[in-house]
Write a structure and sequence with these properties.
Blueprint lengths: L2 H12 L5 H16 L3 H5 L9 H11 L4 H5 L1 E4 L2 E4 L9 H13 L6 E5 L5 H9 L4 E6 L2 H14 L3 E5 L12 E6 L4 E2 L8 H6 L2 H4 E2 L6 H13 E10 L5 H10 L2 E8 L5 E8 L3
Parallel strand pairs: 3-4, 3-6, 4-5, 6-9, 7-8
Antiparallel strand pairs: 1-2, 9-11, 10-11
Bound molecules: S-adenosylmethionine.
S-adenosylmethionine (SAM) binds next to helix 7 and helix 10.
Length: 280
């Protein structure tokens, strides 16, 4: 067997589930991480004596639809690697855009910031590392998610205070915040049918879904509670459902936030909402 032959075999098998491009990218990723082989090694068509069991297991899981990030146990985010498990959402590119905007718009030192629904900790940890002497708090209702976020903060040497909190039922125990950020669950159950099986079957539904009857539940509760803990002039940043930009804009304005913006991501989808709390 040679690397090239195996590569072709694996990427063709994956084409039942993924596009040709995705299948090749996934196979390359597995070869790099498990065999330590680069694309150039594949092209050079190196011989391989024996297939490692880890590679065969990983391929089996990929074919059953498990996302590659859960198989390998990590995912890239804003230039770093985060541990992930099925207890947390796999960090997304659009969330990197939200983080990038916050960094760009908040350059002063000593910003006090809270991330609600932190999951893997990708938002809070990245902001703690990229911003100037920030004081960062992060909460989630899921204990398993918090355990993983703490592991990520420790690996990446980020200072973040994590706490278990159910934002729908608990009050926010922090105060004088400059920024509240959240990427809350925002996919309506009715949108399930448009989703890829590997997301539906493997990513945590607690992180993804809201009831159709009240898709803005998290936005409303967070925006209301944030008003009590933001400093005057403090900012609220949300990642949003692309279909609900106008509704979220109206919601934030009706709750008294000013200079409300809904921004598009690189794919031209409305994905970010920002509002400023000017005080009552
Ligand atoms: C869309 S995921 C975002 C995860 C991570 N911040 C990211 O951007 O990749 C939403 C997160 O909200 C958490 N969550 C769901 N319900 C919650 C609640 N009632 N209170 C606090 N967090 C909640 C989930 O556990 C999940 O980690």
């Amino acid at each position: 067997m040679t690397l090239k032959k195996l590569f072709t075999e694996y990427s063709e098998a994956l084409q039942g589930l993924y596009s040709k491009n995705e299948a090749e990218t996934l196979t390359t990723w597995l070869f790099e991480e498990i065999l330590g082989k680069k694309r150039t090694d594949i092209l050079r068509d190196e011989p391989i004596e024996q297939l490692p069991e880890a590679l065969e297991n990983a391929m089996e899981q990929l074919l059953s639809g498990t996302p590659v990030q859960y198989i390998l146990g990590f995912a890239p985010f804003y230039g770093r690697e985060f541990f992930v498990s099925p207890a947390v959402l796999i960090p997304r590119n659009e969330t990197e855009e939200l983080v990038h905007l916050i960094i760009k718009e908040n350059q002063k030192m000593g910003v006090r910031l809270l991330d609600i629904g932190t999951g893997s900790g990708c938002i809070s940890i990245t902001l703690a590392l990229e911003m100037n002497e920030t004081i960062v708090y992060a909460v989630d209702v899921s204990e398993e998610a918090l355990e993983l976020a703490i592991k990520n903060a420790s690996k990446l040497k980020a200072s973040v205070a994590f706490e278990k909190l159910d934002i729908l039922n608990d009050e926010i125990p922090f105060h004088d915040l400059d920024i509240v950020v959240s990427n809350p669950p925002y996919v309506r159950y009715s949108e399930k049918k448009n989703m890829h099986r590997n997301v539906l079957d493997h990513e945590p539904h607690l992180a993804l879904f809201v009831f159709d009857e009240d898709p803005l539940l998290f936005y409303r509760v967070i925006a209301e509670k944030a008003k009590k803990v933001l400093k005057p002039g403090g900012k609220l940043y949300f990642e949003i459902n692309e279909a609900l930009g106008k509704d979220i804009q109206k919601l934030l304005e009706s709750l008294g936030y000013s200079q409300v913006r809904v921004l598009k991501d690189l794919n031209d989808k409305e994905r970010i909402a920002v509002g400023i709390y000017e005080s009552n």
